[in-house]
Amino acid sequence: MLTGLAIRNVVLIEQLILTFEPGLTVLTGETGAGKSILLDALVDGYGGGGKAFNWSRLPPSVSCHLVLSGGLTPANVTDGILQVRPRCKSLAVDVSSGVEASATGGALLKGIKDAGRIHQFVAAVRAADVLLARSPHALLSTT
């Protein structure tokens, strides 16, 4: 099992040292103008596993564009944005299972999106934007 990764002087990355915990996956391609790095959690199967990425694992300053993914829901996307956005040049969010409809009994209906949850998710993203506009770096978690 891969337990760590060190990257030095690769395109925009001057130095990055990661120690992996079980379940963490880092995927990156070429970076440069208009390119982003996707932050996601390792799940069995193909995407939409609902497992959150451990946002606190990021260094305090990442000089690149990031896409936050993995386990985002209306309940946690504001916190994810508040923790990650002050650390990078720009941030996008990606959601899938976090806005899926539920069947009777609470099981998610894989691939079926719930309009109400989508509206809640968008509202939570907008709430994070308002908080960051007031104090862009004061909310940065040190954990």
Keywords:
143 residues; alpha/beta; two-stranded antiparallel sheet; 20% helix; globular
Helix/strand-derived category reads alpha/beta
The sequence of SSEs as H and E is EEEEEHEEEH
Oligomeric state of the chains present here: single chain
Q: Helicity range of the residues?
A: 10-25%
Name the beta content range.
25-35%
Give the rounded overall mean pLDDT: 79
The number of E-state strands comes to 8
Number of helices: 2
Q: Give a quick account of the main beta sheet: strands, pairing sense, barrel closure.
A: 4 strands, mixed
Shape: globular
Please give a quick description of this structure:
The chain is built from 2 helices and 8 strands, in the order βββββαβββα. The chain has 143 residues and is an alpha/beta fold.
SSE inventory with pairings:
Layout: E1 4-10, E2 13-19, E3 24-27, E4 36-41, E5 65-68, H1 77-84, E6 90-93, E7 100-102, E8 108-113, H2 115-134
Parallel strand pairs: 4-5, 5-6
Antiparallel strand pairs: 1-2, 3-4, 7-8
Helix pairs in contact: 1-2
Task: Describe this entry's structure for a reader.
The chain contains two helices and eight strands; from the N terminus they run βββββαβββα. By secondary structure, the chain is of the alpha/beta class. The chain has one domain. A four-stranded mixed beta sheet has the order 3-4-5-6, covered by helices on one side. The protein has a two-stranded antiparallel sheet with strand order 1-2. α1 packs parallel to α2. The two termini are 26 Å apart. The model has no long low-confidence stretch (mean pLDDT 79).
